[in-house]
Write a structure and sequence with these properties.
By secondary structure, the protein is mainly α. Helices cover about 75% and strands about 0% of the residues.
């Protein structure tokens, strides 16, 4: 094995490790957000209803954090895809096909999608799980705000404006940036540009 092929194989192992880590990180963040949301709802019902007003920020933080985790999954998959293709070419084989399996079974790279949820023929269980957790987050956000609404109003107009202004600004910023980065394909185009000149010597 020449130096170029050996380095590529090492990098492929590193990217596969990164892929595993951020899958684990994603579900760790989902579990944390879920537990925190349930705890806040219980606290709001049994102790102090102001706890309900902490649910929307927690849901928003969970959404942004899990999308961040997914952005690293996409990063690792782009690089590992190119490495597998180049290693196959350099070794005159087609042994490394994980990238093809991921593209058809999980979610395709470079397609328009909501983080990792692609629509049309490419829609998958992976995409459904992404949308499922997203929908639960939106529901928790809405229920937390609804349950805490009277408490917010009772706190006075100053607190109401400050809370809704801050929450609304961060929510809109997250949505706009997510649309730009994921749905608009900005992030994946940057990766493609960085990887287009990868070569291995035989």
């Amino acid at each position: 094995m020449n130096d170029s092929l050996r380095i590529a194989s090492q990098q492929l192992g590193r990217m596969r490790g990164m892929n595993r880590f951020y899958h684990e990180r994603f579900f760790a963040d989902v579990r944390f957000t879920t537990a925190a949301t349930i705890a806040l709802i219980v606290a709001g019902a049994w102790a102090d209803p102001i706890a309900f007003l902490l649910v929307p920020p927690v849901a928003l933080i969970g959404a942004v954090q899990t999308a961040f985790d997914a952005s690293y999954l996409i990063f690792a998959r782009h690089y590992s895809t190119v490495l597998e293709q180049k290693i196959n070419e350099a070794s005159s084989s087609n042994v490394l096909v994980a990238h093809e399996m991921e593209n058809s079974y999980l979610f395709p790279l470079n397609d328009r999608k909501i983080v990792t949820a692609s629509f049309g023929p490419a829609f998958s269980w992976f995409g459904f799980v992404t949308l499922f957790y997203t929908a639960l987050g939106v529901i928790a956000f809405g229920f937390g705000l609804a349950l805490g609404w009277n408490t917010l109003i009772d706190a006075g107009s100053g607190w109401t404006v400050a809370y809704l202004g801050a929450l609304g600004t961060l929510t809109v910023a997250g949505l706009i940036t997510g649309l730009w980065w994921f749905v608009g394909g900005t992030g994946e185009r940057r990766l493609a540009a960085a990887l287009e000149n990868v070569t291995l010597t035989r």
